[in-house]
Amino acid sequence: MPQYTPPLRDLQFVLHELVQVTESFKQMPVHAEVDVDTVNAVLEEGGKFAAGVVFPLNQSGDAEGCTLDRSTHEVRTPAGYKAAYAQYVDGGWPSLSCDPAYGGQGLPHVVNQCFYEMLNSANQAWTMYPGLSHGAYECLHAHGTPEQKATYLPKLTSGVWTGTMCLTEPHCGTDLGLLRTRAEPQPDGSYAITGAKIFISAGEHDLTENIVHLVLARLPDAPVGSKGISLFVVPKFLVNADGSLGARNPIHCGGLEHKMGIHSNATAQMVLEGAIGTLVGEPHKGLAAMFVMMNAARLGVGMQSLGLTEVAYQNAVAYAKDRIQMRALSGPKNPDKPADSIIVHPDVRKMLLTARAYAEAGRALCVHTALLLDQELSHPDEDVRRASADEVALLTPIVKAFLTDNGWIATSHCMQVFGGHGYIREWGMEQYVRDARINMIYEGTNTIQSLDLLGRKVLADNGKKLKAFGRRIAEFVEDAGVREDMQEFVNPLADLGDKVTKLTTELGMKAFGNPDEVGAAAVDYLRVVGHLVFAYFWARMALIALDKQASGDAFYTAKLHTARFYFAKLLPETAGLIRTARSGLNPLMAMDESLF
Amino acid sequence: MPQYTPPLRDLQFVLHELVQVTESFKQMPVHAEVDVDTVNAVLEEGGKFAAGVVFPLNQSGDAEGCTLDRSTHEVRTPAGYKAAYAQYVDGGWPSLSCDPAYGGQGLPHVVNQCFYEMLNSANQAWTMYPGLSHGAYECLHAHGTPEQKATYLPKLTSGVWTGTMCLTEPHCGTDLGLLRTRAEPQPDGSYAITGAKIFISAGEHDLTENIVHLVLARLPDAPVGSKGISLFVVPKFLVNADGSLGARNPIHCGGLEHKMGIHSNATAQMVLEGAIGTLVGEPHKGLAAMFVMMNAARLGVGMQSLGLTEVAYQNAVAYAKDRIQMRALSGPKNPDKPADSIIVHPDVRKMLLTARAYAEAGRALCVHTALLLDQELSHPDEDVRRASADEVALLTPIVKAFLTDNGWIATSHCMQVFGGHGYIREWGMEQYVRDARINMIYEGTNTIQSLDLLGRKVLADNGKKLKAFGRRIAEFVEDAGVREDMQEFVNPLADLGDKVTKLTTELGMKAFGNPDEVGAAAVDYLRVVGHLVFAYFWARMALIALDKQASGDAFYTAKLHTARFYFAKLLPETAGLIRTARSGLNPLMAMDESLF
């Protein structure tokens, strides 16, 4: 019943007109040959795969879910999932941005991320199977021994094996320092790992012949806390020297979670009973090794909500144009019909435009950030690499938390457009809301993201990274501010920039007195900075749209209207948020715990 | 796994200390004997029933759902539902606020509503079976013929039969003027009704021997639109003259909806194939007859979200005290444990206090409004009845929309406190979020409520009703404003009152130019006025708490802290909302429909 059309025009606008990725690619030797046509061809084919193969399985997969056979510990994914994954592998999609040394196509991450936006629109739960795999690939690529790389990377690149990240345990999610899984050194240099992991996405399934688990555990001599955690690679089937599969490793799925959404992704409880693994990176440095892929993973979660926002928007627009109900307050707009389409009602448009404005600015931010990731990895100039890394560090918690909070708001609005029909499964809208909800939780809850932003990314270096982003804004304001037709965008952007500067200074002073002040203000602060970033991108997009309006392409007219909507109806939220951010810690802490 | 304790202390505070219901009861002859002890005894027993009988079925009912036997058209409710309903009937609970003339106990509606808050905390979907019944009772009580009353009211009062409201059809939900179900007059004065209804809550089930459907349909000579709709009572089984059950009436359940939440309430597609009914009220005046029970129904939906907010809060608090994870940013608070309870983290408290502040102010508003309903019905002074009716009219859309939007925010926050554990079914939190979502949709979407408030309740009488409520606030501000210790509450209340006055005037002027301006501002406007109402109740509650602090009862200390939290962290949302309300229609309508 739902529909999905890959937003190729807007992706191309962001990639080529706004961010101009190929200009950056030319400066990176490994990507210098990637031109506009290549990028567009990949996205066009990727969009066909997402819409044609993965999207039709989204509702049926949600209804069917995954099934665990408790006697064999094997998990069956919903009908069609295995065949779709085989097509994914046959099409070479897993290898898009992987290292050519292991069979990858070596395309920039930003291209892969745009492909993932479409996969997530099509079916977030299915997409998590290859998505999680990518995290394991990145981690082994950065920290694996030559043997580990030779054993695992070609298979993860081709996609014939998938990977997982086994971090969480029942008593520790956010606080991995508490974890208890133990790794005993074996005479042959391997480790026997015992413990219980929970919430392991794609932890067990029938899509591939082998699953490569990356597992956090403690060595016998490990210091307590987060400095005593090591990382191991633990395959479901051990791998023989010739690359063939050996014995079944005792790492089993002990149960599947029944969840609010993403039903068709197997969220596994994993039981390790002396499972054999090898150490990745140095002993006790496991957390640091995991964190190399954290920025990409968090960007990936932002992309999930971007994808859901886009597909929810498309469906809500189609319904709002089709459904007739009541007359416009200002008089009939379709007098020949018994009622007007509900898109004539201002609040229906407000809900639709909220989703649209969040999707389009979110896309701009994601592409901008993903390109910075490529620069961080592949730019020849060390200064550019460092500056890019700093900006990625600043923007990552915003991408993760702001986009997923917005995705929750937007999918709920799009569902509301359907009235009662939005609440029933048939129309597919309520699934988008249920699926979107997990994105605010995993890969670090949005509260954790906000503490990361305000505490570690902003205050810890006295605002250096924030000021660097502020210079981007200031330059744009100076350039565009001379234009009469840009005043409506540049003025509120500059004004909000000033307010963020003041707010940051004030919060820094308070935090100096009591570090808990960071926790009191961080969530509101992140949302304010998120709007600053969105206002910057919306102003830049408006500038392009103004310049190209003469072309007669209605795309730019729509872009301009959406920009104006954003500044009129969404940005003003910051007025309240700045007040609550400033209202401090005391209203939260004054009440004794016993009085709750 | 979840827990629920009826909030008797806070209910008593609101009933007896804040609203002082028994003072009002004394002025109403039919309720003059209802004293504090009676009210408390009913709520104590009602709380036991809700927590002890209905609450344990909430998760299992959600997991099992309802089942339709397509051969018999009969619906089976989840295990335990029928037995719980039998206990409900045996306990005399359906008759609490019903007319003694038909076997009711004649208690004030406000007492029944407080009982319903607890039932909704315990199990919203179960509670909808008796809840819907109450709507049918009210409607027949107001508009039924003596024969209809004699036939149906005693059975609805005792609860041995339940009732439904059959309004919506596939092509019309909000716009009932479009409905197509037809009623053909029969020689005996009855009508044969044919058509299809959807989204009929409790439309078919196995809890009772008969179901009394109130059905909207068109007579053959009916004018088009909403002025041609009549109301009929159509029992599942026809009723013989002696009150015994006769033939099965051809009104069948043709299907059940698969919904996001409230799984255990049967949402039925009802097929009428010449079902026999009798006319309720006058021909073509069916909508008006239905609307007599709309205020109570909308208050009831607000109560549903109040109930969910309360139970979600209780569970999130328990988890936040129990779960240890990370250290407070300001240093360990439980140094003897490996980590601190998460309630030490300011943002966890912010999420908890948001739910708490919304629940407690929502309870105050609901009790206040329900008492006004009693006054509207039972006060001997016509001026009081009229003033009460006006205030109910003003507050009803706020109760419905503001409380259900807040319930969505609050249940989602409470779920977030659980991190990943909130997303899985086991802990029960995600169910509260799924169940809460419908409340923003049914009984008139929240957008419809906002149009009702701004267009019909405020602007249509030039703000007369709003001004009357404003006088309540002004009197309180004048009285309490002389106290030094009330400045922190009275000043922001008075300030917001001024802003609402200005905003209302401005929107009235704009709407005069273009009625669509109402639709552009209404949702933001309702939320601003909702905060004004909450600020008023929080200031009043703070005043009582200040005066009683010396008693040493920690209840008042907690009340005061929650009031301060509300003013510091929730009220400031109005700063942004006023701006968006003022930003007008153009940003919404400028974009041509084809560009969406």
UniProtKB/TrEMBL annotation, chains A, B:
Occurrences of domain Acetyl-CoA dehydrogenase-like C-terminal (ranges):
471-592
**One Pfam family from the UniProt entry?**
Acyl-CoA_dh_M
Ranges where the Acyl-CoA oxidase/dehydrogenase middle domain occurs: 165-273
Per the UniProt entry, the Enzyme Commission number(s) are: 1.3.99.41
Q: What class of enzyme is it?
A: oxidoreductase
**What cofactor is this protein dependent on?**
FAD
Q: Name one GO molecular function term.
A: oxidoreductase activity, acting on the CH-CH group of donors
Q: Which residues form the Acyl-CoA dehydrogenase/oxidase N-terminal domain?
A: 83-159
Residue limits of the Acyl-CoA dehydrogenase/oxidase C-terminal domain? 285-451
The keyword Iron-sulfur is annotated on this UniProt entry: no
Q: Which UniProt keywords apply?
A: FAD, Flavoprotein, Oxidoreductase
Q: Which reaction does it catalyse?
A: 3-(methylsulfanyl)propanoyl-CoA + oxidized [electron-transfer flavoprotein] + H(+) = 3-(methylsulfanyl)acryloyl-CoA + reduced [electron-transfer flavoprotein]
Q: What does this protein do?
A: Involved in the assimilation of dimethylsulphoniopropionate (DMSP), an important compound in the fixation of carbon in marine phytoplankton, by mediating the conversion of 3-(methylthio)propanoyl-CoA (MMPA-CoA) to 3-(methylthio)acryloyl-CoA (MTA-CoA).
UniProt lists the family membership as follows: Belongs to the acyl-CoA dehydrogenase family.
Q: Could you tell me what this protein is called?
A: 3-methylmercaptopropionyl-CoA dehydrogenase
Lineage, broadest ranks: Bacteria, Pseudomonadati, Pseudomonadota, Betaproteobacteria, Burkholderiales
